Task: inverse folding
């Protein structure tokens, strides 16, 4: 009987040791496996709006990681006048960023950031990761207007804007996530803002 008890005890101890080693080994294995993006199901009738660069000639405020003192340098040779709509102008406009004093509900998730500029009803979508996907900012209203998504296809380290028109007495809510233009699908991680008054008055 005593031998039976010892064999049962040793089997239990062995099983406990095996379970403990499995539990401690599993997280290490999970950390080694890259996490793939999770698809987000959107309504079939969601309207996707491609955001554009800010207007040429608009003041360019570079994102904080690129900001620095601007030095005035006299050119050494002849200066070419840029053609309106040229590449240099497009890049400068694409790098324009929203003003933190007028853009509300600033929300960010992996690779994407967005906010709502109440004066002009402008949705800003910023792309912060070079991963082949675009930043996307979904906009919901509290009065039943169909959801629309502002997508930034300008590339990493750029901001795109979508100029919309919302009811001044309504509120909007932002949903920031990633968008794959090749497949037309949206991906997590995602983040939601709180409700933002369209007129900017909290």
Result:
């Amino acid at each position: 009987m005593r031998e039976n008890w010892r064999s049962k005890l040793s089997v239990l101890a062995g099983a406990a040791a095996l379970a403990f080693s499995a539990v401690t080994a599993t997280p290490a294995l999970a950390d080694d496996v890259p996490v793939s993006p999770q698809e987000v199901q959107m309504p079939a009738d969601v309207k996707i709006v491609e955001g554009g660069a800010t207007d040429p000639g608009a003041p360019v405020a570079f994102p904080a990681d690129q900001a620095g003192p601007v030095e005035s340098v006299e050119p050494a040779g002849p200066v070419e006048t840029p053609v309106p709509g040229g590449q240099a102008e497009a890049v400068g406009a694409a790098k324009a960023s929203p003003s933190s004093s007028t853009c509300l509900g600033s929300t960010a998730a992996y690779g994407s950031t967005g906010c709502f500029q109440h004066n002009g009803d402008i949705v800003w979508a910023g792309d912060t990761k070079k991963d082949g996907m675009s930043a996307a900012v979904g906009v919901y209203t509290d009065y039943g207007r169909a959801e629309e998504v502002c997508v930034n296809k300008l590339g990493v380290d750029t901001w795109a804007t979508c100029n919309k028109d919302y009811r001044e007495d309504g509120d909007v809510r932002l949903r920031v996530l990633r968008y794959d233009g090749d497949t037309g699908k949206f991906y997590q991680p995602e983040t939601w803002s709180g409700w933002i008054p369209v007129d900017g008055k909290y």
User: Anything to note?
Assistant: The mean pLDDT is 73. The radius of gyration is 26 Å.
